[in-house]
Design goal:
about 180 residues; mainly alpha; 12 helices; about 80% helix
């Protein structure tokens, strides 16, 4: 499970492209007002249905973002090192990314994504894969709990395509290790 959590963090970091805004008294008020944004993110995550065409869009988009990340290393390091980014909703992360590294998030349009939808799709893929793995390990109670925020069709897709998804994840891990 720890490995999957790390994969989720890496996947989200891969979608991240820019430094986030420093915490100020004004941003505390923004965080308090963020609850509806987080609720909307949860609703959109639950509504997202992962299927083969969307998986192909995700993998192609991820590749473009990864290549752009290589060319814009400093903003990535700043972003992933900032606790405010880690605590932000997906909507807020998307805004931060678009504001700071629009040339990278602009690549998502080539695949029919905006930044927020891309982050939602990565989140759904990672969480659905995690549920599928728990089910494979007979962790039914934990899988049921983790599945609550996801569309059952997304979980069914990852169940049916688990090996293909894991093969793609493995290629990402190999690439990441070769860059270190």
């Amino acid at each position: 499970m720890n490995k999957l959590s790390k994969l989720l963090a890496n996947a989200l970091a891969a979608g991240a492209l820019a430094a986030c805004i420093a915490v100020t008294p004004g941003s505390v008020l923004a965080q308090q007002a963020a609850q509806p944004v987080e609720n909307q993110d949860a609703k959109d995550i639950k509504a997202f249905v992962l299927d083969q065409p969307k998986f192909e869009k995700i993998t192609a988009s991820f590749g473009d973002i990864a290549n752009c990340r290589k060319q814009n290393r400093a903003p990535w390091d700043t972003l992933t090192g900032d606790p405010a980014y880690a605590d932000a909703s997906l909507t807020e992360k998307a805004k931060m990314m678009d504001a700071q590294v629009g040339q990278c998030t602009g690549l998502l349009k080539n695949h029919g994504f905006n930044t927020r939808d891309y982050l939602i799709s990565i989140d759904v893929l990672s969480r659905s894969e995690q549920v599928s793995l728990m089910k494979k390990r007979n962790m039914t109670a934990a899988a049921g709990k983790a599945a609550e925020g996801l569309n059952p069709a997304s979980i069914a897709f990852t169940d049916a395509h688990y090996e293909e998804i894991e093969k793609w994840r493995q290629s990402i891990r190999v690439q990441a290790q070769s860059q270190q």
